[in-house]
Fold each of these.
Amino acid sequence: MSVRTRYVVERVLLAVPTLLAMSIFVFLLIRLVPGDPVRTMLGFRATPQNVATIRHQLHLDEPLLTQYGDWMKGLLHGDLGRDYVSHAPLSELLGSALPVTLELTLLSMGLALAVGVPLGVLAAARPGAPRRLMDGFVIVGVSIPDFWLGTLLVLLFAATLVWLPPSGYTPFTADPLGNLRYMALPVLTLATGEAAYIARTTRGAMDEALGAPFVTFLRAKGLAERSIVFRHALRNASVPIVTVAGIQFGVLLGGAIVIETLFGLPGVGRLTVTAINQRNYTVVQGAVLVIATLFILVNLVTDLLYGWLDPRIDAGGDR
């Protein structure tokens, strides 16, 4: 087995216990949240007899270990449980909400990379005004909270200029143009801060790469500066950029909860907030499990990309 293949196998195998530990943590955390979901669900009908009956039907009167075992058996068969309130299968609820969250996060990350990487490269390659402008963008992008920026964008583009809708959602398959119009403000809100982080990381990595001895050698050979920057230096700076992008993708998943609520997007974040208000344990548990699983998988993909980009992996060097 080659060094690179062994690296991939190790990373995939390490993800399995991580997923298991995460499932235990999510299961116990939800059970420790104050409030009785049965009493919330029954409302004024929450008599002791009714509460006991519903708790038995939902298996909430069983030991935690038994509940966890039954839950894991259901997960292995694709059964995430049912909504306490609507009694709908949780797989259907998450199946309709997850594409919205994934579209929001993927578009936001794509925009953040498309803006952040060129800005960072430009700031490193051309010190002076471009670098000062990027420094200002980084300070503003990192400092402004998402919910405040989103509110400002709604006031500007929806209330004042009336260019974009303030909230709502249309599936891409039903109306592609309408979908992009509804997603524009949420994506811009999420992407601004991430673009600032990526630009700062790119500039730092490019500064280090452009100051390396191999760049001096390439310049001495008369290689064009554009080729040095984009073909050689950027490739050497790609590892920290990919690492930060993977971490920030997880941040986007968390930020989607606030943004979906602010802009009325029917994603996992908004579903989670509604379930929390209802003390709906199964929905919160399933939604948190899905978000945490996506975060672990994104980090796994980031590790694999790191191994593909870093030549030291083939050499058996430091990983």
Amino acid sequence: MLMDQDPLQHLRRQIDSGRLPNHSKLPPERDLAEQYGVPRTVVRKALAILEAEGKIRRHVGRGTFVGSAPRDRLERGAAEAWSASPIELIELRLFLEPRLAGVAALRAKPEDIDNLHHCLAKFEAATEWETLQLWDRTLHQAIAIATHNSLLVRVMDVTSDLRKSKDWDRLQKSTMNEGRKRNVAVRHRAIVEAITDRDPKRATMAMRDHLIGVEVILRDAAEDLMEDAE
């Protein structure tokens, strides 16, 4: 019996200390009321506060469990996103970036256009792998910035960070040579020129063609690496 304990404070301490581990099931309200020697309304209020704090989750017909279900799903989703494969990443980019280039063609300001040409020139002049990748990412982010949509910029920040993963870098590096660099530079220039000309349809198609080319190369490289590992 826990007759001298405040149910809210006691349960909170038990959860915070780990004595009640994550996903463990709490006794029913009736049993908790008997343990603490308080009315069920007091227990119900304590559980409501703990639920609001994210310390427990309550399922009708199943009971009350330690841990917050929405937070758990969010954490799992975030972990899965950060462990996404290069193929998953290029599929996401194919959904997002062609439309993004089209919007940029409509909304880019003169300073945005100048920045795109600056990034393009830096990419074309790069000779080291790290510098090449830096200006590739920066160019694609600059296109997002030219949309003047803060949410699109945030999403592109995430994709840019994912492009720094070892798996992405390894696949890209394994396929990069002078001929491919020239090809990418040509496709980049087509995108930038379409945005400069305020042609959203052409910008969309140029970005789509560019990323389809990247996808084909990445898939071939991934298959080659799998064969080498066998």
Amino acid sequence: MTSSRSRLRPQQPSPESLHALIVGSTELAGVEAEAKRIHSLLERRGHTASSLLASRSEWEQGVFRLNRQEGSSVAKSERSQRTSAADLVIVLGGDGSILRTARWMGYEQVPVLGVNLGTLGFLADFSPAEASDALDEIAAGRFRLVDHLMFECEVVRNGIAIHCELGLNETSIQAGPPFSMIEICLHVDGERATTYRGDGLIVSTPVGSTAYNLSAGGPIVRKDLDAFIFTPLNPHTLTNRTVVDSAARQFELVVPSPNAGSACVVDGRVITGLLPGDRVRLRRADPRFTLIETHQHGYYRTLREKLEWSGGLRVTKLRAASESET
């Protein structure tokens, strides 16, 4: 079900101890104390753990890149040593921490359990108070390994690939300064599909559908589906609406006349500025990002809690609280 080499298997308790890698940003308040607490919880259950806590800039410097021509890593020694021994990675932080960890693991993904030390947290789904129960569920085999689409974004200039990035959430083309409208031509499997005119375009995975895409008015797409979501930013043509297409296809974006500040962005990071004629190619990546879900934490529970889909119940409670005060 997953491309990782982890020994984790759902529905059957593991007779062996598991090794967890605990990661997080030192810039988050309480991350070191939480790492020690999780480490202790694991040891009391007969498991082992190691920690990798570093600043955000250090995480960015450790991003794993692949040399596609040779099929070998450029710089992966530390990452390989740490992830090859891990059965799961416990990420302390929010969704940004999970995105950085996914980039760092690169083409050798290990199942992730997200412990939310941030605010919203669609991917970092477990609170610190729930971590102990989650570890018990994992040890008992009561969990799911849910694979998620990752993508490769390649920027081609004058026929040469100048950047190739692995992403999880989205690629976006941003108009940038002087903030005039730009045109973005979309080609699908070599066929011209449409031309967007506006402030840019978001190409999101289902995992990223609850991030930038949702803020721009795009739809929520179940995160274990294999699809790309194309959401225009402030389109000049009002009939330009979000389109969802299969991730099995090849996509290419061309900006004939970018602004001076136009850029290609992957998972919130500017990859490169764009020049006339640059081609941004998107395709499904081989590795799959894998999240660990327990039976207490499912997809719709996460949406209900994070987006406050409580319907009239919340309104009723607020009204009752207001009336009690008066």
